[in-house]
Amino acid sequence: MLALFAISGIRAQNPIVVSEDEFDFGSGTVPGYSVVIPEVEFDKTMKDWIKYLETGTRSKVVEKDNNLSIFGAKVKPVSQDPVNVYSIVKEENGGVKIQTALELERERYASSTEYANARKYLFDFAKDEYMSVVNDQLNEEEKKLRSLRNDLTALENDQSRMEKSTKSSQETIEEENQKLADLETQLASLTPEEYHGDSAAVTGMGSKSADDVKDLEKERKKVNREINSAEGRIDRAKKEIAENERAMPRNLSDQQIAKNKVEEQEKVVEFHRNKLETIKSYK
After folding, report:
1. From first to last of its 283 residues, what are the pLDDT tens digits of the chain?
2. Within 80-114, where are the H helices?
3. Distance between the two ends of the chain, CA-based, in angstroms?
4. Cα-flanking dihedrals φ and ψ of residue 161, to 5°?
5. Distance CA 133, CA 248 (A)
6. For residue 62, what are the contacts with CB-CB under 8 A and spacing of at least 6?
7. What pTM was computed for the model?
8. Domains in the chain, start-ordered, CATH in brackets?
9. pLDDT digits (tens, 9 = 90+) for 153-166
10. Nearest of 108, 111, 77, 89 to residue 35 by alpha carbon
11. Distance of alpha carbon 252 from alpha carbon 78, whole angstroms
12. Are residues 216 and 192 in contact, defined by beta-carbon separation less than 8 angstroms?
């Protein structure tokens, strides 16, 4: 449903139709041809049309408002000789309409006889312009798709990281619990009786027994520090597991939303690819 809504707002390709036409230019009406190029922007199309008219000649287009004139243009599909071209360019129906008159000789204009060749001249330009704008649309939609896929990959990487972190923390807890058991056993064995024995032995040890007791206490403190460190590592590991357990369900939910967006955008990209291929097939 979301994909249908997303695509429904996108414009499907339109045909490119070149028609015979007549229009007011200068002080009179001239016969010619017209074409509407769908979806294109006026400023870019005007600039490209001027460049198209000037191709192959040193002549320059004279522009007044949206009226264009060029003398000695090369319109090879229509004539091997230079011709004068008069055009009006204007916005129409979400695209740009170009009306063109081709003056082959003084006051003799291309008409029905030259329609097929004139159509090719206008059609080739219109098709290239239309393909350009749709190709830009496709590139933009592909860019959006790459961004959405990157977002999804980042979420998947976060999930993988948290799973590995949880596993590692669980292993840490097991290892540290085993260390704690060993340290508790070691601590229990570090008692003064082990060093002093019975009272007679203590008396016999003299000052050496005092040094031994001092060493014993140092060892007990060391073991206690190791116990505290192990307990700290266990606490941090438990905290890490708890944080992951809170975050992973949210991450999975976000992943599903991201996957839906990727699937919707893939349909949009495919729509634009098909649209471009359809326009490429225009003849």
Report:
1. 444 545 656 888 899 999 999 999 988 899 999 999 999 999 999 999 999 999 999 999 999 988 999 999 999 889 999 999 999 999 998 999 999 999 999 989 998 999 999 999 999 999 999 999 999 999 999 999 999 999 999 999 999 999 999 999 999 999 999 999 999 888 888 866 544 444 444 444 444 577 788 888 888 899 999 999 999 999 999 999 999 999 999 999 999 999 999 999 999 999 999 999 999 999 9
2. none
3. 35
4. -60, -45
5. 43
6. 68, 69, 70
7. 0.78
8. 11-139 (3.30.310), 148-280 (1.10.287)
9. 999 999 999 999 99
10. 89
11. 64
12. yes
Query: CB–CB of 99/34 below 8 Å?
Result: yes
Q: What is the length of the chain?
A: 283
Query: Looking at this protein, which amino acid is placed at residue 66?
Result: N
Contact 236, 170 (CB under 8 A): no
Q: Which long-range contacts does 61-65 make (Cβ < 8 Å, 24+ apart)? A: none
Residue 8 structure tokens: 């429904």
CA distance 205 to 197: 10
The residue to which tokens 């008219």 are assigned: 53
